[in-house]
Amino acid sequence: MRNFRRGHFDRAAAAAGLVGLVPHELRHTAASLAIASGASITGVQSMLGHASAAMTLARYGHLFGDELDAAADRMAAARADWLRTSRRPAPELGRRTGR
After folding, report:
1. Residue 32 maps to a domain
2. Is 69 contained in some domain?
3. For the segment 21-66, what is each residue's pLDDT rounded down to a tens digit?
4. How many domains does the chain have?
5. pTM (2 decimals)?
């Protein structure tokens, strides 16, 4: 890798006006873009070749910050859609129905 970097990558990066760019930064960029595009933690783990999802979360967990808010919004939209199309009365939220 060192010969590739010194012999080819560094010159290409300099020609593109990106002096100091290293290949590992491209790895971080790829992971960040995958996460921003909705990739799961296990998908990113596989892409990067990490041994565990915990390892991936330790490095990139902060990029998943608003995922729970987005999931809650999708769940609320799905419930609203179900209520709109269902002929059954809406179940009360937060109460057990005995099932």
Report:
1. yes
2. yes
3. 998 899 999 998 998 888 888 999 999 999 999 999 889 888 876 6
4. 1
5. 0.57
